[in-house]
Design goal:
The protein is an alpha/beta fold and 330 residues long. The chain folds into 2 domains: 2-64; 78-322, 3-Layer(aba) Sandwich (Rossmann fold), CATH 3.40.50.300. It is built from 13 helices and 12 strands. A 6-stranded mixed β-sheet has the order 6-9-10-3-11-12. A hairpin with a 2-residue loop joins strand 11 and strand 12. The relative contact order is 0.12.
């Protein structure tokens, strides 16, 4: 555009000196050229915007529509639902698409209906990957997963995911009111259900202290809330679904022990199978059993006391948080 303007001014100057055009005509041509150039530039921006929108829509579609093999979808029974929430892993292995190294290897365990199971392990041990196989965000590479003693492929995605309350490691809040963020977990949720879910998630009192209470606007990604507040709103969103399976992916890390204790106690009223990924031994000790993962393998599985007696790795984790000479260590 700048080169075009330089050419017009240079050529116009030559024509003006020769007496073949006037300065006013040159100014008019410069203005017209700038308008045309700006229009072309805006057209280019519009094309880029459509290209970005198409790419974004493709990524969103990839997230919302899991690539489940058609034969697995055909096996789904529309008449069955998750009623108890019992979870069984039978020699399950998993490798991410386009990767060569297995993230999970020969995972076998059972979480009985209504049981509370803690999953602990170092970063990269495969804890979140284990979670993502239950709602079929990914398909296992080997072995079988059962829900209520039925293969997970017997359920449609709507039936399966509708019975799960999943709180990810990073809280996902959107621009809108606190009420809308909680109600996103259940269509047509009543105000009473929203308040009860907030109370059980230990966030109700905090909401009532906000300027507009449940109508308070949440900034993008919850920018105007603390980490603990965002986690508890995400947990309330899961609670409002009244799920048969509740999965908490290190989603109480920003809570103090007293608040976390009240939250875990409130979960008992939901009569659901609860899986908790945590780095805190104090949290794991409140569960029925503990699953210790290391490098994609189950290293130990049992109660807190059983793991103290069976696993040196678990003992080292306990001592790292409570200090050496832990009174219940072997």
């Amino acid at each position: 555009m700048n080169l075009s303007l330089i050419f017009i001014i240079w050529f116009g100057n030559v024509q003006s000196i020769a007496g073949q055009t006037s300065v006013g005509d040159i100014v008019a041509i410069v203005n017209y050229a700038m308008r045309v150039s700006m229009s072309i530039s805006m057209f280019t921006f519009i094309i880029l915007a459509f290209s970005r929108a198409k790419a974004s829509a493709h990524r969103i579609n990839h997230v919302l529509t899991v690539n489940v093999p058609s034969e697995a979808q055909n096996k789904a029974d529309l008449s069955i639902e998750v009623t108890k929430g019992k979870i069984t892993y039978n020699q399950v292995s998993f490798t991410y698409p386009a990767a060569n190294e297995r993230v999970l290897e020969d995972i076998s365990f059972t979480a009985d209906a209504g049981e509370k199971l803690a999953i602990i392990g170092a970063t990269g041990a495969g804890k979140t990957s284990l979670f993502q196989l239950i709602p079929r965000l990914y398909e296992s590479s080997g072995g079988s997963i059962f829900i209520d003693d039925r293969p997970i492929t017997d359920y449609t995605l709507d039936q399966l995911r509708g019975s799960i309350g999943y709180v990810p490691q990073t809280p996902l809040l959107f621009t809108g009111s606190v009420k809308e963020n909680i109600a996103w977990g259940k269509q047509h949720a009543s105000m009473e259900e929203i308040i009860q879910a907030a109370k059980d998630a230990q966030i109700h009192d905090t909401i009532m202290d906000l300027s507009e209470q449940y109508e308070t606007k949440v900034g993008q990604k919850g920018v105007n809330l603390s980490g603990g507040q965002k986690q508890r709103i995400s947990i309330a969103r899961a609670f409002i679904r009244r799920p048969k399976i509740l999965m908490l992916d290190d989603s109480t890390s920003a809570l103090d022990l007293a608040t976390e204790s009240r939250l875990l106690k409130a979960i008992q009223d939901y009569h659901c199978t609860t899986l908790i990924i945590t780095q805190k031994i104090a949290t794991a000790m409140t569960t029925d059993r503990i699953l210790l993962l290391d490098d994609g393998h189950i290293q130990a599985h049992g109660t807190h006391q059983e793991l103290l007696n069976q696993s040196d790795l678990y003992l080292r984790i306990v001592e790292s948080q409570f200090g050496k000479g832990y009174p219940h260590a072997k």
